Input
Amino acid sequence: ATHPRPPAMPRERDRPRRSRRAAEPKGAPFYTALLGNGTPATEDAGVSTWLFFWSAALMLFSVVQLRSAAGSAGSSAAMLVNGGAIHGVTTLPEFAQGDKGLVGDYTYRAQQLTMEIFSAPKPFVGEDKDNNERAIRSWMALNPKPKVTLLGWEVGYDEAAREFGLNIEKRVDKNFLGVPLFNSMLHRANNSQELVTIIINGDILLFDDFIQTMRKVLANFKDFLVVGARYDIDNLPEGLDASSTDRADYNRRIREHVLNTGTLHTYGGMDVWAWNTDGPRLFDPIMPHFVFGRGKYDNWLTHETISAGRRQVVDVSETCLTVHVKHDYHLVETTKGGAAKRRLLGQFWSEGKKSKFELFVNIYLSLHVGTYTNQMGSVLFAPWKLSLCLEPTGMCLLKRKRPGICNCEFSSFVGATQTDPVVKNGSRVIRCGMISVETKDDFVIPVLPPENAKDEIPFGLPLTLDSLLPRVAINNTIVLSALNFGYRNILMNWICNMRHIGVNNIIIAALDPDLYKYAYTRGLPVYYETTIFEGLNSSLLADATYGSDSFKQLTKMKSRVVLRILKLGYNVVWTDCDIVWFKNPLNHMDSHKADLIIQTNAPDNEPMNGKRRINSGFYLARSNAPTIQAFEDIIKYASRSRMSEQPCFYDVMCGKEMERIVGNDKCEYQGMTVMLLDRHLYPNGITDGIWDTEPGRIAEKWPNLMILHNNWVKGADGKQARFEQH
Output
């Protein structure tokens, strides 16, 4: 351990010698000058003062000698923060160094401190609104004042931004339940232009000691990641006025209350991360799509940053008071019907982790990506620790020789922790809490519900069509696509497209287990579709290369998926994943007075309903009896044909000899109306030569586009080349 201290005074023998007379005010005895009152003292008083002076000098000389001896072994790696004056030295003592060059003198950076706080608070409603606003006020009271950016968009974000002067960054990926993904949040925070970027939970209070802590870390480490455990309290002090203008008294009362009644959250949960933006990459693996607020990403991030070894990870739990007022977890869905129970903190995390969909996903990801295992990466694993001490700064920098070895480490220094030592049932064994026991074998993604299951299956374990439809549908309509693992890159391109324009009512029918697992771990609304393959060769999927007989058979499966959902009472917008959406077309499509509203595949010189020019890659099918009957007829017709699905649509709806066409944009079939969409708003891959537009200018040159189909090009490689070009 190293202790901050003022720079050592020069030793007596090194000081310039001056005569006593040179040090005395002219015409006054030496002892009179020492008394400092300008009045001659008695002889006894002079002797007493003389003895007092030399006693004090001797004590000071001894302290200086001891400090100088310690300094000869190596300077203290600390700094003094006192009234804005910052003093730093360069290295740890030799006996405490280990690897050299980890600590340096970067005190100039402490004076350059600028910060940006990123957070994704819950919607500003009810109790959550109070918690969010209280936390934001604490952030905005820091000096220097940080820039604060809200990530995503929820109810109340706009109002909070106006009231507190915040920024909003809406470009944050979420899972299909609307919860931000932590990898996307981290990406946005990494792009900050401030010296220090911070991610913090939306209900965490910060105080002035956060600034002092950040300055100390900046002065000692070139590249760092700061982590800290929070204090949990049941409630705030009685009579506390959050709108009080006396912030010093407000902060003092909270601090006293927290230190007297709070519990340090030492099991592993962290709520604040801070790092310098001008440093190297935090960690090596690509961060998985962790669901924010559902555990494990905090430990994974800390562990992987420690393992990468490019930054010094510092535990500031003691020196930086981060406060969390306990609340329930009413936004976390666990039941089949969607009615989540309100769970308090302890209940929420102690219940079975295999019954909570998002927790299960996060645990799975933490165990299968990178090197994290069994709750490594808590604050106790940080190689460095800032501790409270009786030094001028109030902070001492400690180097942990064996990080993570003792869960009880904080118990002697704070009022209470989650891992205080206990002796159970008269045993001589002292226990410091418990660690999670989680292995890869225990967390395997469920693909299909267990056969003949008697108990209710928790939501999301696995995801099924029946469980997704009521949660995803908007106005009784869902956007559907079905594909296999080979098209996963095109799928993710399309998902990014949907997020960008705000289309959230999507469902993905995975045609093989690999795609299901791929989408499941990325927070997508996916289910494994098996019912449509009954009676078909299982090798169909593996052999489905573009243009092959297997591919033609696979395309016929799309209408089977749609029919299944139509029979469940939902309207379906089918879209191939090679279609770019420029605007949300759902309202425009719904305004058409027809049962099936579908894209044309005709070239510009042919009628939109020309022979076999229906494009079954994009349409809206309404859930009604005529449409359901038409899809059953299409499936039956396609099963006897060697053609792909698309011409089968036309032959049934418009007639093999075009006998059921009406005008140049309609067909009628057994009481239902088929309408072809305007090709200039919903163009196919050859319309108007749009794909030949100079790269990056399609939206500018064709501002009225709703969608653009990337067809009339052969194979997935051709499609991807177009996507990359534009």
Summary: The chain has a mean pLDDT of 83. The first strand starts at residue 79 and ends at 82.
